Amino acid sequence: MAEWDIRKLQILRTLRERGTVTATAEALHMTPSAVSQQLTNLSRQLGVPLLEARGRRVRLTDAARLVLSHTEPVFEQLERTEAALAAYSRGEAGEVRVGAFSTAVPALVVPAVRALRTARPRVTVRVREAEAAEAYDLLAAGDVDLALSLAAEAPSAADPRFTQVLLLADPLDVALPPGHPLATTPTLTLTDLAAEPWIFGGSGPWSDITRRACEAAGFSPHQGHSASGWTAILAMVEAGMGVALIPRMAAAPRDGVLMRDLGPNGPVRHVTAAVRRGGETGRALAHVLGALRDAAVVHATPVTRA
């Protein structure tokens, strides 16, 4: 029977996700030569080639992919084992590391932490702010236990590494200067604003969300100005420099900006929570996830629980 080494399998798994030996080494805090040596040893132990050269890079062989497909349940079971041990040894206590995108921190994470201080005082939450896409990288690397992100940035629902939960559909309102000709239109739609200069980031999730929302309404938005921070965006709207989509969860009242609801068929962004598959059985993690779900109710109609 072949000798199985979990650490070496983790290295192989990380290489599949990161794509290069260098990126794998960085993610696992190893040197590239150490990564290569460990994978060479694993190949020798299993008696099959795991890597093949493609120019200056390497790719996983079919044998390597076969190995990973059959060992994925092992990683899931190890997550379950760790969760069970934590529940056994600490009871209701535990530490949960949460990676969350910027607007989710004050809107969801902070209210959840406050609620847990009363309901579960022995559950500790450590927060790490991260870009929406980065949160999943942190989760995969084991640097956080729960990732708050956007569905638009999430891996496929079929990804075996994660269990994903849709928390809420956060409506996107349009920000207008109060004197805008359409400010008092009874039923405002995105199509009404097709000819306006739009303000959004040059790249990243918010740029993608704005473009997709406008394109779904039948037009491609003209980017009048580029900004990624809500303070800058709202200041430019107030100055009459353009209009912008603002997630309701992120909107802060501003005297010189009028926020208009785009109706029941208006665009939304979906906020998700994700954990490593198997980790959701940990009681502390379940308490944090429950508190986040409760906090989501305040901001929008939550997605129905499965």
Can you count the helices? 9
Rg, rounded, reads 23 Å
H/E topology pattern: HHHEEHEHEHEEEHEHEEEH
Uncertain runs: 301-306
In terms of structural class, how would the helical and strand content be classed?
Answer: alpha/beta
Q: Which overall shape is indicated by the principal axes computed on the Cα atoms? A: globular
Structure overview:
This protein has 306 residues and is of the alpha/beta class. 42% of the residues lie in helices and 21% in strands. It contains 9 helices and 11 strands. The strands form 3 sheets. Strands 3, 4, 5, 6, 9, 10 and 11 form a 7-stranded mixed sheet that branches. A two-stranded antiparallel sheet has the order 1-2. The longest helix has 29 residues. 35% of the residues are buried. The C terminus is likely disordered.
Question: Which features would summarize this protein structure in a list?
Answer:
single chain, 306 residues, alpha/beta, 7-stranded mixed sheet, two-stranded antiparallel sheet, 9 helices, 11 strands, globular
Describe the structure concisely.
This protein has helices at residues 6-18, 21-28, 32-46, 62-90, 104-119, 132-141, 205-216, 230-238, 283-299, and strands spanning 51-54, 57-60, 94-100, 123-129, 146-150, 162-176, 197-199, 222-225, 244-247, 258-260, 268-276. With 306 residues, the chain is of the alpha/beta class.
Topology overview:
Elements: H1 6-18, H2 21-28, H3 32-46, E1 51-54, E2 57-60, H4 62-90, E3 94-100, H5 104-119, E4 123-129, H6 132-141, E5 146-150, E6 162-176, E7 197-199, H7 205-216, E8 222-225, H8 230-238, E9 244-247, E10 258-260, E11 268-276, H9 283-299
Parallel strand pairs: 3-4, 3-5, 7-8
Antiparallel strand pairs: 1-2, 5-11, 6-9, 6-10, 6-11
